[in-house]
Amino acid sequence: xxxxxxxxxxxxxxxxxxxxxxxxxxxxxxxxxxxxxxxxxxxxxxxxxxxxxxxxxxxxxxxxxxxxxxxxxxxxxxxxxxxxxxxxxxxxxxxxxxxxxxxxxxxxxxxxxxxxxxxxxxxxxxxxxxxxxxxxxxxxxxxxxxxxxxxxxxxxxxxxxxxxxxxxxxxxxxxxxxxxxxxxxxxxxxxxxxxxxxxxxxxxxxxxxxxxxxxxxxxxxxxxxxxxxxxxxxxxxxxxxxxxxxxxxxxxxxxxxxxxxxxxxxxxxxxxxxxxxxxxxxxxxxxxxxxxxxxxxxxxxxxxxxx
Length: 307
Hints:
six-stranded antiparallel β-sheet, Beta-Lactamase, alpha/beta, 18 strands, Rossmann fold
């Protein structure tokens, strides 16, 4: 469900009226504003270009609203290039980057905004949940998906189900720690998850995965660590350390199939150490979240595939 109130609250009246008059809520994924360029919407897989030309005042108005009229209080978020608002909606920001000691300190002269609509689809992981268990234990799993094919949405639902107890079985409930480096899984606002990630879930928001995985092991004693989009050698080292600590892992990467894991040198160690037992491969063939196949690394075969 989409809480349109949270989106409307940050929009200027003129843009709000365009959205309301066109009744664009169903299937709305993004609103893009660029100074002196047309306001555009992304509806499912279709781009809608309106006749309205965005102004710098529109951008300034939205930035003031999302920062509670204190943009300096959000300097760390600006450094990352986005601010997450109530409801879990993320607003991407582009402008002039201020560099200090070789790093981005903040963004000024903001000229582009991308308002990404956050959606929860409870139950979207139901098809794959049985394959995440072996003898009532969660197996280390990697979700492989091209961009915009629902991997984060499915990962969030897996988190919720494991945290609450699979099939309402309390014995299957797990203590979860989400290392949410890009604030996409739990979509925290002021540290509080805006998405339903379950009752036994703790979130390290905005924390680099390589550091967050070790922090979680040391301080939160999780049964399962969940993170999104691994891809660096530091990530791999932390994952292997988590495995040696007896903690299970569910994560994602961008890709189109199992072969993408074997093509990338960065994944060599985790493949050689048999870290992952299962892989869920997604596509957008039948819409976001289409499960193409489920792969078992121990059997070296697909144990389920889309018909």
